[in-house]
Amino acid sequence: MEFENFLIITVIFLLAGLVKGVVGLGLPTVSIAALTATLGLPTAMAVVLLPSFITNLWQAVAGGALREVLKRLWPLFLAVVLTTWLGVSVLAVSDEAILSALLALIVILYSATSLMGLQAPRPGGAEGWLSPLVGCINGILTGLTGSFIFPGVLYLQALGLPRDILVQAMGMLFLVSTLALAGSLGGHGLMTQELGLQSLWSVVPALVGMFGGQKLRKRLSEAHFRKILFWALLLLGGYILYRSL
Q: I need a labelling partner for 162 at 20 to 30 A (CA). Which of 30, 90, 97, 168 fits?
């Protein structure tokens, strides 16, 4: 690994892990956006895999509601797995600048809706067909951009789940998306040995950052930190969009 890339990856995952430790989410979003702005989208998508898997594994399987989450949301998760491959197939033959701009729009939209406190309406009786539809869209966008958040996170928030179950459901979404993306990138020859080693190293600063963030959580206002986070993501998304266009 070149020293410059080593330093960039280390700093980004320390920051992303810190965010994850303080607010319980944001590592894939922060890291994929920052890596895209510095190293490019294909590299970002590969490097984020192992840190995302390891930091979301515990969130996905712990919490006591795994069976409930799977029973209710398996159509969403299955659709993500089936369609991520399709997204990566398009990625393999597409212009990186266009897909980087798409990632920027996703980050901007997610940040803006979070800052404004907007929430999708509850699906009610439409949940039966909305879950696989949202999963398909989420999977395709994951394959195209490496982002796991849209529209899956907004949909999960709209279900009105208790906080602990919502956190576990988001962990499951991120974990399933990470595994599907890893398999799809590997199947299309986009996961090289060098990128694998970079992803492996990224686990170390991500865990260090998480530990530090958990310590800081007691001293910081989570609401204030979230506002800073989403403003930073909004600006970062704008920068990626500007550079792509």
A: 30
